[in-house]
Amino acid sequence: MPEPSPPLSDDVHEPPDVTPPVTPAELARLQAELENRSVPRILGRTRTLLQTVAALSLVIVLGVLGYQFSMQQGMASVRTNAGHRLDLFASAVEGMLNRLEHVPATIQLNRDVLALLQEPHAPERTRSVNGYLRELNSQLGSMAVYVINQRGIVVATSNSADKGSFMGEDLSFRPYFLDALSGQVGRHFAIGNTSGLPGYYLSNPVRDGQKVVGVAVIKISLAPIEKAWAMLGVPALIADENHVVILSSQPEWLYNTLVDPPLEKRVEWQVSQRYRQQNLPRFPLTPGLSELSSAKMLQGQAYSSRGLGLRDMGSDLLVQVMPLSKMQWELVTFADLSAVRKQAVLVSLLSCVAAAFLCLLWLAFNQRRRLTLQKLEAKQQLEQANARLEDMVALRTLALIAANEQLRREVQERVQTEHNLREAQDELVQAAKLAVLGQLATGITHELAQPLGAIRTLTSNTVAFLKRGALDTVESNLTVMARLADQMGHIVHQLKGFARKSPALASRTDVAQTVSNALLLFVSRLRTEDVTLVNRCQEGLSLVWCDPNRLEQVVVNLIGNALDAMRESSTRTLTIDAQPQPDGTVHLTVSDTGSGISDGLMHRLFDAFVTTKPVGIGLGLGLAISRDIARAFHGDLTAHNLPDGGACFTVHLPSNEQAPSTGPHP
């Protein structure tokens, strides 16, 4: 073997300092040189500071100018696009509401209407007018068409046959009735007194000559406007002449007042039952909306969306107003300015980047000259540092070689230790098998003694029957002897397979077959100890991926422990079950009716050399080895007490090829 290299010392001795002393004349020269260098250095620092301040100022100024320019352009674009949408939406709204404005004036052309207003107590004429209004309402697609007499009582209506008919209803308090009664055309928004549905009411006087004898009214639905909000693409509302929100894309804004109405207005609304509410809430956006009738004041002003319930919009909004003059309504939209502001910030950043790029170009040109001067000095320092580094690298390389050699030896020792530990564990597994075989020797001897005695008796009988020539009896005896010999061979084969020392090789294993092989070793003990066996394992139902020989050892250990636990019990029942689980595993359970596991033993049940058996009966390794075997194949072994007494051990095993092909590792 090569001799170990001598240990390296961590101390690196520097060469002695042999620098000659500095003379006074040389010291004076060095001081003068430092003073000459300090003045240009101070000037250079001042110049650099001024240049930096100028560059930062340029970047900031260009960023602000870019932001302002982009913001103005974006606001103009948003205002223009929103204006186009406002024009289209306003035209659509006016078309929906005013397309039927001439209908009330034509109702008086029906002679039955005038006759009914002159003679209201004529049932036949009332039915005729109701039918006419019903047909007219069906053709127009309006909500209702009705006729009111001079006292404000509805005398004919299109919904006379409906449950919520207007017949006989007093509408004298409605503003549209009062306007038409005075000879004017009434245009008003109101909520239906009977139906409770909002609508746009158009009223026209019914004249008999120059005298107004009644009022014809048509109620137009506002539902088409609700469906047209998508044309705007932004939150919007429509306020009537009283500055009350009557239509809105946001349901929570409905019937909010944009201004604080005076007391007389509130009294008028309460008398006319126009909005069917005592106190209308205030619109959440206060600044600038106190003069909503002045549309120009709100053009181009930005407002915050806080408090408006606009969760999907930015914090800045552009409020635009367009009057709907024919209805005396106002259309208000709220356009999101977050995209405009983001674009402005992006343009500002790009402006700053462009300015910074120009400054960097200038700085790069200025620095190029400095770098050229510094390269020579840096080259000299680098050569000196390189020389020192080479010396250090040589020393560190020697140390690293020694450390690497030491690490290689430690790795080899660790590999050898792991190999020895695995062999020791295999020996321990084999020892546990032989210990189990020793405990089962008496029962197995009894199982073999019975067939041997029968074979001995049948042999003597066969010789006697052969001499007599009773060949049928001889053949029957030989058949029984062959069956007994096969039975003995099956028992010996199972013992040889269980006692064989072989490496663990994972394969597809039938749990039921493994349990059957293990139970064969306990046939005599189950019978002599009067133990009731309940084996619910079915062949072909539970397939696991593990070593069958190792699994059989686990089952033998669990069955043996269960039988030991039930020796003092009056009822002895051994239950074995195997069920596939939804997570792809198979649970093999072995439960008994013994005294169970004490609380003090439960937490250290699977520790090595922990046992409740008398000295010389067990080593306390069975459960520890069994759990190691289960975990080697990506499984586990757990235990718990049963509610009715006794203990239950559960072996968790995978049903697919998760497990390694080698045996358990320490």
Can you walk me through this structure?
With 666 residues, the chain is of the alpha+beta class. The protein is built from 15 helices and 17 strands. Strands 2-1-5-4-3 form a five-stranded antiparallel beta sheet. A five-stranded antiparallel beta sheet has the order 7-6-10-9-8. The protein has a five-stranded mixed beta sheet with strand order 12-14-15-17-16, covered by helices on one side. Strand 6 (236-239) and strand 7 form a beta hairpin. Helix 9 (338-468) runs antiparallel to helix 10. The chain is flat. Mean pLDDT is 77; it is low at 1-20, 287-302 and 659-666.
What characteristic shape results from the CA principal axes? flat
Provide the spatial order of strands within the biggest beta sheet. Answer: 2-1-5-4-3
What is the C-alpha radius of gyration, as a whole number of Å? 52 Å
- pLDDT average, as an integer? 77
Number of helices: 15
Helix content: 40-55%
Low-confidence stretches: 1-20, 287-302, 659-666
Proportion of residues in extended strands: 15-25%
